[in-house]
Model the fold of this input.
Amino acid sequence: MSKSEFKLLHTMMRVIDIEKSIKFYTKFFNMELIRKTDFPGGKFTLAFLGYGSEDKNTVLELTHNWDQKEEYDKGNAWGHIAIGVQDIYNLCLSLEADGVAITRKPGPMKHGTTIIAFIKDPDGYSIELVQK
Done:
């Protein structure tokens, strides 16, 4: 099989408050809500967000299980999602002013020159910001 036969489709994260999470990713990172579907029989909602159509872009899938009340265990194997940004320093100042947790201030990564920062989303998932 050749590489052209494969495509990374999405990354899925479970969230407690889907509306709060949709607002977070659309407000702070200009993602668009591509589609959102309730599945009453399974008691869950799926929302897909990203920077363009799913047929041409990898997207973020948020899954809300209606009966889940406690925070999910994040585990120790999963790391983070990464979002490329234009002005990481001003973005982090703005995010911090809006109450977003900055867990690593912007600056060069260890052993390299790429400028990165880390933040937490409403569910405590890590997001790496990478200066583009």
About this structure: Strands lie at 10-14, 32-39, 44-50, 59-65, 81-85, 102-108, 115-120, 126-131. The helical segments are 18-29, 88-97.
